[in-house]
Each structure stands twice: as C-alpha cells, then as structure tokens.
Amino acid sequence: MYSAQLLDHFQNPRNVGEIAGADAMAEIENPACGDVLRLTLKSSAGRITQAQFKAKGCVASIACGSALTELVVGKTLNEARNLRREDVSAAVGGLPRASTHAAHLALDALSAALSRINPVV
Known about the structure:
With 121 residues, this protein is an alpha+beta fold. Helix content is 40%, strand content 21%. It has a single domain, classed as Alpha-Beta Complex (Sufe protein. Chain: A).
C-alpha cells in the first residue's frame, strides 16, 4: 500500500521539531480527517535555509511533512511557492488515492508559512 520511501519518511522523519526564532510558522488542520501539521521556516536572502515540522496524524501526513522539509530547504521563496501536490507525492514515492490529503495538508502549511515571511526588498 505505501512505498518504501513513504515508510522511510514515516519511520525516520527528517527535520522534526520547531525552529527557535523562526521567520514563519503555520499550523494547519485538515477538518475532514483531523490531521494537524505545524511548519516552521527560517530564511535568508530570499531562500529557505531551514524547515522543521511537527505532525499529528496518519502515516502519510507525517511522511509528507518530512518530505516537504527536504524539498524546500535551499529553494527560493518563489520556488517553494511553486511546489505542487505531485512534487510532494513523488518525494514519498507516490501516495494511495485515499492519502492524497496528506500532500494537500503539507502544501497548505507551506503556503500559510510562506505568506508570513517578509520578502527581501
């Protein structure tokens, strides 16, 4: 049912926790299933330098939160804004149809956090 990549992100999640002095934080809950994802970001010169997450939810939500943090570190804010559900899904080796909500949750948290980062002028 789940790919080896997804199970690895679930069993060995990357970047778990919260960044002290984060530039942005967002916590999003999926009202349909109750999964919650909190994402904290640190940025410098228009690039994401650090990302950490905390999640309460299903296997797929935890795996997608983990994968998202790996996807965004090093990206510009605009590159991060352009990530799509398919990018998160691919990073965990695909998602079963019943678990696609997990990629949406991760991207919703990212979008909310990015909206709280002041752009470099």
